[in-house]
Amino acid sequence: MKALRQLREDALTLPLEQIGFPAGTSRRGSPGLASPDRAFSTPPRVVRARALAPGSSVSEARACSESAEKRTARWQVDADWVARKWSSGRLLQEVPLSSDTGLTREGWAQRFERREYQIRIGKATREYQLWSEHSLRTGRQGPATPKAAEQTTKSSFEAQYAEWRRQLHEKPRA
């Protein structure tokens, strides 16, 4: 226990150039020691952070980070209950919503983003890739992807999504 505590203290006081990666792992995958006196067998890999260019200001750095945030498509629901999907300052999609449901405007925006995330997961599967290749070869359509931007209940969308995923697992007919 004292040796481990001493190793931790030494690691905190050593210069960054002397710190590397653990030499081995135990059966559980936790870092192990190659020998009691040497915790790291390889030289360190120092990752350098990108710095601002000389003469650039903090406001320019903020503008860069804001533009990076704008590149991702985000849903926003305005006071008129119209959901809009924006990406890089461009309007991609617009959906009128009803204010009668029990969900807030922010709730609908989050729900649409979560649904699109689920669909992206489904499209990243091997089964979807097979259907896409089949559609290109034969010209026939595969299972219809559920629409994320519909004002339906959560359970209704989940049922459509589950049916779509089930259909993806069926082999395309030649």
Automatic annotation (TrEMBL):
Residues 109-170 form the Histone RNA hairpin-binding protein RNA-binding domain. It holds the Pfam family SLBP_RNA_bind. One of its GO terms (molecular function) is RNA binding. Transmembrane segments: none annotated. Gene3D superfamilies: Histone RNA hairpin-binding protein RNA-binding domain. Residues 18-41, 134-156 are annotated as: Disordered. InterPro entries: SLBP_RNA_bind, SLBP_RNA_bind_sf. This is Histone RNA hairpin-binding protein RNA-binding domain-containing protein. It comes from Effrenium voratum.
